[in-house]
Amino acid sequence: MRVHIHTRASTYAHAHAHIHTYTNTQNFELICAKHPRVALKLIKSIARRSLGSRAQQAGARERIAGHSLTANLATFAVMPLNSESEEATAVLVRRMAQELAKFGTVLTLDVATIASVLGNETITTMHLPFYKTRVASWIVQQEEDYRFLLLKGDLKNTAWSSICVSQADSVLLAANVRSLPTLSAFEKSCVWNGEEGCVRAFEEIDDDCCKDRMILDVRRELVLLHPGIGSAGSAPPPARCTKRFFDFRPGLTLHHHIRLGCTSDVQRLARHLAGRSVGLVLGGGGARGLAHLGVLRAMEEVGLPVDFIGGTSQGAFMAALYAQWGHTEAMGERSDELCRGIGSVTGLLRDFTLPILSMFSGKSFSATIRNALGHGDVRDTWLPFFCITTVINPVTHIDKDHQTEHMRVHKRGPIWKYVRASMTLVNFLPPIFDQGELLVDGGYVNNLPADVMASMGVNTIIGVDVEDKANALDPGKMLRLKDSVSGWFVLWRYVLEMLGLAGGFNIARHKDMTVALCYIAHTTQFPRQRAMLDLKLEPPCADVGLLDYHRKEEIIQHAYTYSLPLLQDFVRQSNAQSQSNAQHYNSRSQTHTTALGDAQPITHAAPSSMPQMTRSRYAETQTHTCTHVHARRYTIFFCIM
Q1: I want to staple 7 with a disulfide (CB 3.0 to 4.6 A). Which of 15, 319, 377, 466 is the partner?
Q2: Which residues lie below 8 Å from residue 584, measured CB to CB, with a gap of 6+?
Q3: Catalytic residue (choose from 10, 68, 166, 313)
Q4: What are phi and psi of 374, to 5 degrees?
Q5: Helices and strands, number each (H, E), in the chain
Q6: Which H/E stretch holds residue 387?
Q7: What pLDDT shows up at residue 546?
Q8: How many CA atoms lie within 13 A of 578 on its CB side?
Q9: What pLDDT was estimated at residue 233?
Q10: Rounded to an integer, what distance in angstroms lies between the CA atom of residue 308 and that of residue 319?
């Protein structure tokens, strides 16, 4: 009997499930008795991976700047979901191979390649255990010679597609956005272990027959292809187009919108797979959040890409606009509409209401957000996007997807609604009601969500902090008040301040106390967030008030002038570091004769499209690659007579 035990960078449960797939307890005990050294090596591997998976589950809490959770992924299965998506998937695989080659050597495998190397007999008999093991072992050999393997699935060959999924570190489900989103029998069997779009843990399965045919669980990501769109800056994807596919596949880890004619989209996907993606987090701060537009313009000028984006409060609005359009030109008109709505005195008076729940009804403000962002889903953006809100009355304690009891991370649902909630200052605007919970401004719990970005596996994280650090409530300038204060007296003091007759002493304003409370929460969180940032930008906007939206152009220009030289220096240092690493490791590259019969030089050129961190993971990642030691993976074959 031939037994194939294959452990990879996964959890102990996954490895345990895979062992049960190919053998039973008695056979495994026989293996341990006859090959104790190999069994010990296997157990150590599982233990190491278990510790690694626990660290990954801890996620961003212990992230170090420049470290990616996806940096060690090497083998990717690309599966077309239906016949309407086959042609587009073939184009995607070719383009991905070209872009991944910037990070290391790439080998693309499909049914035709396997037939040319292992013979046509292997293709027709691949469903048999012996030939399945033969193909799997040959694929593992290629992993020692190539940094990346792309395994292209075939709708007509279920056996080959199942091998692709079982050998992959990550499975990409490619679908034409116009195709039917339903779950086919092919996808259900090959990708989801026979489940309805969601894989249960091994321990949750009671039926031994299901365990016997269970495929090792891996990351599953949706790639929605837009073949008719060929350039960046296009209108956002069709509303709710992503939700249709997620409804049938609740077990998806992530999704990507890819315009096949847009090179930057394919480059973004390649950076994600290579563990080299760039994430941008934008903090809140009222009108000071307009500075984000100046930072984004500077990033475009220096050629620094944005692969993931998220934010809080005003930063959520600016991040949502950029995620939808992918460039700053389209953001100008929509941010102007926001400024006209909030910065106008007549607009504020029109929304003024009896201040019991809030000073403003929120009707005009909500309409402004809705008009700017549309009615689409959070997932209907070109760039992966999220925003943060605070829950006043949590229904249940949630510790999923990096959420806490009083913090919600929104990665799906109506985009305008959750951005509006993220911008809801208490007492200024009424909270948003969502499934029994009241959502308000996310700045109360996480104003610069670098930890959430890190949990998404991003390598380089840039944060833009526009929080007001100058305390307007200066104790030396505060008017001494009694334990009871008349509102008429406060109004009189405000009039004196406006006339310059207050004698240098002020009374605390409601907005000043609100901003101060947000900043207090921010300072308690930031020491942990700082360790996760590779670059922090703080545009000068201390003199900008919470509602100074009429100063938009001034705020944007100051932020652009401030951030441009810092970003240029960041790119310059990163590129210098990556070039040094590339020269060092290229000098150690060796020539390997692969099973394809060609002498392939294993070289690793640093990509020119994305600058690297000075504390880059490039050296660490390529150390494993150039020595061709994949410590995260062991494949052991036993022939038990």
Answers
A1: 15
A2: 619
A3: 313
A4: 80, -170
A5: 23, 18
A6: strand 385-391
A7: 81
A8: 23
A9: 65
A10: 10
Residues 280 and 487: their CA atoms lie apart, in Å, by 43
For the four alpha carbons of 399, 404, 406 and 411, in that order, the dihedral sign comes to negative
Instruction: State pTM to two decimals.
Output: 0.79
Q: Over the chain (641 residues), what is each successive 10-residue block's mean pLDDT?
A: 37 38 56 63 54 46 51 88 93 96 94 91 87 88 92 94 92 94 90 70 45 57 87 75 92 92 93 94 93 96 96 96 92 88 76 87 92 93 96 73 80 96 92 93 91 91 84 63 76 77 69 68 67 91 85 95 96 79 52 38 35 37 33 34 30
Token pair, residue 635, equals 């494949």
Q: Where are the beta strands (DSSP E) in 442-534?
A: 460-464
| HEC readout, 277-330 | CEEEEECCCHHHHHHHHHHHHHHHHHCCCCCEEEEECHHHHHHHHHHHHCCCHH
Q: Look up 441 and say whether it is catalytic.
A: yes
Q: Is 247 a catalytic residue?
A: no
Q: In what order do the strands lie in the sheet with 219-225?
A: 106-109, 148-152, 75-80, 170-176, 219-225, 254-258
Q: Which position among 154, 307, 441, 534 bears the catalytic label? A: 441
CB 508: neighbour CB atoms within 10 A? Answer: 14
Non-local (6+) Cβ contacts of 69 within 8 A are 56, 59, 275, 454, 455, 457
143: its two tokens: 């992993």
